[in-house]
């Protein structure tokens, strides 16, 4: 060996030996001084808790009981002017030495006896407020904010959490509590153990309400877990959820598995799985009935990057007998790139056995499909991308592709029944109004060929201009709806086609639930793709059952009520007006003046827009005026019911607030405890309604006509007289309804 190389090796060996000796000396010194160092560390921690979080931390005693184990007694944590956060009589802690050498505190053992951890909410205050709202140091020098790497945050959070789970765990009589004013949840860990990788535990829910067990395997040093949660003699259930959120949730078993945690290529990745059996749900916003999911599972591969989080497409969702592959990604805004928050979602399936898919629907979710038999295969694909900085560029494509699909047996509801005469019963506030025979035996039933072309064209232009070419859904309308609702900050525009409106009215109840909306979509797909009902018959039934005013159903009643005409006699202006009132039919009379003519404000502009669209498509002649606006005259006997003009309130064009608009807002409020309805906001906070593509807005392009002749006293008298007439009309209608 050359002399120079031998010298290098000699010097290296002496350097390593010197560092080793110094390390051992330092370790020996630290060991001899560990009690004093422990006291200093505890004092610093107590002061920091008080300074930064307003927490009073008390520790009775803390002593070393072995080379790397520590015994602590009489520990309490109390926020200032709040209920106690935690208390423990005795804690025994052991740390692993090798991770400690690189600055990571990893527990090798943990024993906890007699204590509690509680979250207390009284009115709007909780005992976590001081922790969640950390004090700011007024003397600290402010530094320019830099974007936090989400991958680093996730890695630190998961690693800190997992390293605090010891290889050997022994917990006895430790109580987890949630106190929310008068509501309370107690989960007492009478015993929880990890012993040689085996997990066993017993939890008492609300004293003797239920006994829960967690069993399985755990390898904290390898970050691998496989555990099951189940109850003894009854399903898992937390009454607090029902008391607090009106959510009744039960399950037989819950399984969770963590397989791998890794950092690679700037991304933090976590691989795991979970499943649940016999999940029972009941919530007024979900379904009026109990919903039962026999089996649901997921193999999830999560990823976190510098500014994004998501679920990889290699993940798999399982529901009953079928599987799907999801992809989710949420990206933080980037001002330099000009992007806002970006949400991406995809869901794809392989070719699924159609009957297996129908068998996998949760019980109680789609009542009308119960018992349906089908054959063939189905494949579903969904692609969605939304950038909050460019809401109008939203991407939404969704489709269910059949392959040899056919219905071999109808379920609880035969959707072909509307091909024959049938009874339609409209509901008002969950009460039936009256039975309407949809068929030739009803003198008010009008066949499609006997309805004025202008009326048919105006309704299609306003409501669903692609009705005769699409297969039940208008994806462009969905995209416009998403963008409009985001910009408005609330649910202002729906995307229902005529097919969806028909199915909603004929086959489904008026419950504003998620299940009803999904069921509506499924029925429309079945009707349109299997051609169960012709487009002409669907449009004919639609025009003969929809509401056009207070207790006015069908085009024959509407034409006679407003204009004393038959549907065949309606002119262009009358047709556009009837299309105009479909979203809010009960407010139809508000748009007239006492002389029977239409108000200019918010109405004439609509006539121009609809008329121009119709003319552009060759459905009517171009008109430099207002496409029949000035030809509309309310029948004379109705004019006495017209309110003075200052009573007028503009209604929402985009949706019927009894269902699509206010109803969906109410649905999400009930699901998520969201913000109040728009009609509860001050007028100045009302969002500006965007102009939709399918159903034009009613622009206020005309000056407001004010009454400069009548005195205030006369106006007040007219208001009182109008209210009196409204009460009398309402009483009369109620008497007529009771008489039927």
UniProtKB/TrEMBL annotation:
Per the record, which residues fall in region Disordered? 647-740
Glycosyl transferase family domain span: 439-589
Q: Superkingdom of the source?
A: Bacteria
The name on file for this protein is Transglycosylase domain-containing protein
Ranges of biased composition (kind: Low complexity): 682-694
Where are stretches of biased composition, namely Basic and acidic residues? Answer: 715-740
* Organism, scientific name: Fibrella forsythiae
Q: Which PANTHER family is this protein grouped with?
A: BIOSYNTHETIC PEPTIDOGLYCAN TRANSGLYCOSYLASE, MONOFUNCTIONAL BIOSYNTHETIC PEPTIDOGLYCAN TRANSGLYCOSYLASE
């Amino acid at each position: 060996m050359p002399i120079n190389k031998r010298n290098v090796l000699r010097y290296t060996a002496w350097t390593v030996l010197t560092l080793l000796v110094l390390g051992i000396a330092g370790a020996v010194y630290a060991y001899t001084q560990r009690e004093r160092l422990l006291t200093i560390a505890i004092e610093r921690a107590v002061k920091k808790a008080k300074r930064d979080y307003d927490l009073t931390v008390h520790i009775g005693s803390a002593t070393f009981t072995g080379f790397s184990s520590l015994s602590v007694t009489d520990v309490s944590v109390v926020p200032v002017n709040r209920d106690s956060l935690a208390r423990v009589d005795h804690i025994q802690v052991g740390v692993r030495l090798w991770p400690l050498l690189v600055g990571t505190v990893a527990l090798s053992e943990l024993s906890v006896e007699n204590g509690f951890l509680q979250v207390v909410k009284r009115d709007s205050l909780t005992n976590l407020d001081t922790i969640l709202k950390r004090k700011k140091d007024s003397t600290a020098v402010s530094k320019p904010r830099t974007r936090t790497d989400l991958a680093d945050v996730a890695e630190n959070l998961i690693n800190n959490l997992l390293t605090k789970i010891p290889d050997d765990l022994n917990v006895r009589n430790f109580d987890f509590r949630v106190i929310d004013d008068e509501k309370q949840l107690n989960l007492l860990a009478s015993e929880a153990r990890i012993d040689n990788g085996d997990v066993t535990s017993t939890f008492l829910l609300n004293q003797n309400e239920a006994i829960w067990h967690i069993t399985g395997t755990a390898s904290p040093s390898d970050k691998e877990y496989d555990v099951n949660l189940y109850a003894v003699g009854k399903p898992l259930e937390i009454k607090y959820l029902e008391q607090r959120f009106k959510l009744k949730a039960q399950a037989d078993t819950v399984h969770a598995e963590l397989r791998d945690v890794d950092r690679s290529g700037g991304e933090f990745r976590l691989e795991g799985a979970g499943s649940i059996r016999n999940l029972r749900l009941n919530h007024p916003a979900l379904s009026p009935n109990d919903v039962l999911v026999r089996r649901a599972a997921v193999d999830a591969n999560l990823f976190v990057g510098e500014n994004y989080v998501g679920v990889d497409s290699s993940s798999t969702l399982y529901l009953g007998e079928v599987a799907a592959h999801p992809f989710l990604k949420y990206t933080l805004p980037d001002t330099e790139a000009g992007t806002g928050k970006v949400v991406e979602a995809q869901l794809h399936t392989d070719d699924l056995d159609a009957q297996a898919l129908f068998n996998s629907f949760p019980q109680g979710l789609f009542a009308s499909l119960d018992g349906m038999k089908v054959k063939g295969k189905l494949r579903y694909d969904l692609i969605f991308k939304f950038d909050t900085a460019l809401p109008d560029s939203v991407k939404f494509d969704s489709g269910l592709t059949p392959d040899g699909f056919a219905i071999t047996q109808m379920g609880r509801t035969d959707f072909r029944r509307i091909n024959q005469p049938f009874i339609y019963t409209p509901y008002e506030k969950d009460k039936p109004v009256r039975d309407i025979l949809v068929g030739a035996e009803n003198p008010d039933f009008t066949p499609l060929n006997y309805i004025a072309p202008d009326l048919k064209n105006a309704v299609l232009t306003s409501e669903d201009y692609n009705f005769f070419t699409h297969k039940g859904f208008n994806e462009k309308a969905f995209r416009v709806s998403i963008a409009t609702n985001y910009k408005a900050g609330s649910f202002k525009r729906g995307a229902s086609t005529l097919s969806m409106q028909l199915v909603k009215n004929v086959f489904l109840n008026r419950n504003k639930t998620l299940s009803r909306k999904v069921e509506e979509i499924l029925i429309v797909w079945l009707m349109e793709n299997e051609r169960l009902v012709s487009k002409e018959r669907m449009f004919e039934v639609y025009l003969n059952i929809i509401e056009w005013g207070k207790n006015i159903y069908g085009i024959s009643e509407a034409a006679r009520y407003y204009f004393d005409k038959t549907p065949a006699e309606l002119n262009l202006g009358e047709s556009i007006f009837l299309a105009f009132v479909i979203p809010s039919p009960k407010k139809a009379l508000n748009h007239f003046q006492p002389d029977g003519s239409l108000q200019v404000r918010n109405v004439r502009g609509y006539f121009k827009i609809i008329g121009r669209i119709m003319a552009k498509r060759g459905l009517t002649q171009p008109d430099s005026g207002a496409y029949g606006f000035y030809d509309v005259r309310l029948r004379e006997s109705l004019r006495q019911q017209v309110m003075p003009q200052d009573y007028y309130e503009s209604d929402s064009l985009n949706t019927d607030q009894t269902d699509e608009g206010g109803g969906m807002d109410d649905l999400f409020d009930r699901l998520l405890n969201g913000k109040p309805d728009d009609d509860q906001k001050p007028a100045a906070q009302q969002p500006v309604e965007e102009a939709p593509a399918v159903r034009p807005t009613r622009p206020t392009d005309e000056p407001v006509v004010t009454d400069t002749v009548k005195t205030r006293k006369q106006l007040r008298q007219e208001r009182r007289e109008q209210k009196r007439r409204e009460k009398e009309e309402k009483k009369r209608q109620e008497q007529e309804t009771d008489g039927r």
